[in-house]
Design brief:
This protein has 507 residues and is an alpha+beta fold. It has 16 helices and 22 strands. The protein has helices spanning 14-23, 51-54, 57-62, 107-116, 127-140, 149-162, 210-215, 254-259, 271-289, 306-316, 339-349, 373-384, 422-429, 439-447, 459-462, 472-482, and strands at residues 3-8, 31-38, 41-48, 67-73, 88-90, 96-104, 165-173, 177-182, 191-196, 202-207, 219-223, 228-233, 238-242, 265-266, 269-270, 297-300, 324-326, 350-352, 361-366, 389-394, 433-436, 503-505. Strand 9 (191-196) and strand 10 form a beta hairpin. Helix 9 packs across helix 10.
Amino acid sequence: MCGIIGIVGRSPVNQAIYDGLTILQHRGQDAAGIITCEQGRLHQRKDNGLVKDVFHTRHMRQLLGNYGIGHVRYPTAGNASAAEAQPFYVNAPYGIALGHNGNLTNADELRKIVYQQDLRHINTSSDSEVLLNVFAHEMQRCGKLQPDHDDVFDAISRVHRRIRGGYAVIGLVAGMGVFAFRDPFGIRPVCYGVRELADGGTEVVIASESVAVDALGYKLVRDLAPGEAIFVDVDGNVHTRQCADNPTYAPCIFEFVYLARPDSIIDEVSVYKARMRMGEKLAEKVLREWPDHDIDVIIPIPDTSRTAALEMAVTLGIPYREGFIKNRYIGRTFIMPGQAQRKKSVRQKLNAIDLEFRGKNVLLVDDSIVRGTTSAEIIRMAREAGARKVYMASAAPPVRHAYVYGIDMPAPEELIAHGRTEEEVGQEIGADRLIYQDIDDLIESVRHGNPSLPRFDCSCFTGEYVTGDVSADYLASIAQARADTSKQPKQDGRSRDIVAVGLHNSD
C-alpha cells in the first residue's frame, strides 16, 4: 500500500504535491519523496519518515518546476531502507522518474532480464526500480530524440506485456510531462482531476484516491480504467489510451474495508457508503444467527470501523458509544513490524473510557482481524475497563491467505484465522463471541455502489488470485520475506544521496 500523486500546473507545484502527500499519508508512513521538473532539470527530495518530517523549508525551496510527482511508501516486505524511497530516477533515455503503488509478482524474473538482456543495473531490492527500468527500456525503443504521447503509450503497452501483478504507476519524463497507468485488472486505484483557470489554462492532478483531488481544489474527472494510461503534457493537455490487451475490472476489495479514506470515491463507489452497507449486512447477520443477543452497547475500534459500527447500532437499535480515545500521533498498527511493537502501540494508541464499559455487554466492531494481536489487546483493555462480556465483530471475512498485490499482509502462519475456525479465532483473541462478515455480503456491500463491477480481488479472504500467475513457490517466498522474524531494520548508510548524474538532490 502506497500513495502516488502527480501534478501538471501553470505555477510551481511543490506545495500542492506536498499537501497531496499529507492527504495520502494514510497509505504509507515509512517514506516520502517528490521530484519536480524545471526547464528540463529534475529536482528531488526523498527519505524515510512522514511527509512533515521529510520535507522542510530548505527542501521545498529547491523543488522547482510546474510539474512533478510524489510518493508515500510503506514496505510490502520487511523494513525498506531510505535508498528505496520513491520516486526512482534514470537519466537514460530522456530522464525518467517513476513511483508505484502495488507489487510485481514477476519482479525477480524481470530483475534478471533487465540486467542480462536490457543491460540495466538495479541498485535496490525494490520492484519499483525494476518497473522503472523496464519502462525506460521500452521508451528507448522508440528511437526518437523528442518522443510524443503516442510513444509513451506504446512503451506502456509493452510494459503491460512484460510485468505481472497489481500496480498503479505515476511517472515523469523530463521536458515532456507526467504519465500514469493502471494494471489490467484495476487492482490498485488511480484517478485524475482538472482545474480550469481564469486565463483558459488547465491544471491536472493524478492521485491514488479522489480525496486528494477534491482537497487540492480540482474537479474529479474519473478513475483510470484497468490497463488505461494517461499522459499530461507540460501545457496541461490530457491524452488517454487503453494500453492493455485484455483488461477487466477486479479492484482490491480491501481498499474499501481498510486502506482507503472514507471520503474517497474509487471506481465510482463511495468508500463511506460501502462501509455503511458493511455495517448493515453485519447487523443483519447478527439478527439472523443471534436473535436473542444480549448486547448493551456497540463500540468501534477507531478509526476505520466507525462507519460500519454506527450502521450496526442503527440497524440493531442498540446504543453507539465512543469507548476508545485514539492518540492520533501513533501510526497504523496494521503496518508495524513485530508483534511486540504492535502490542505496545495498541496501548499507546488507544485508551478506554471506563464508564462506557463498566458492567455492560459490549460489542466491539473492527474493520478486519489480521494477526489478532490488536484485537486480543483491545479485548483485554475492555475487560480491564469493567466490561461484563466482550463480543467482537469484523466488517470483513476471516483473513486466511497471503496478499500479493501490494499490501503487507503477514505470512499466512501469522494470520490468526489461518488454519482456525471462527470459533477458535474467538477463543484465541479472548472474545465471548466473534462475528465475521460473510464474503458474499462484503462483495455486495461494495458492488451496490457500482453494479457494473464484475468481480473483485478478494484473495486475502479466498486464496483466489485474479492475475492467475501466483504459484505455490511464489507464495512461499513472500511468506519468508514477510515473516516477523525477517523484519529487522536495515543499515543503509543514508544511501539516498547516491543518485544518477543530472538529478538535483535537495538535502
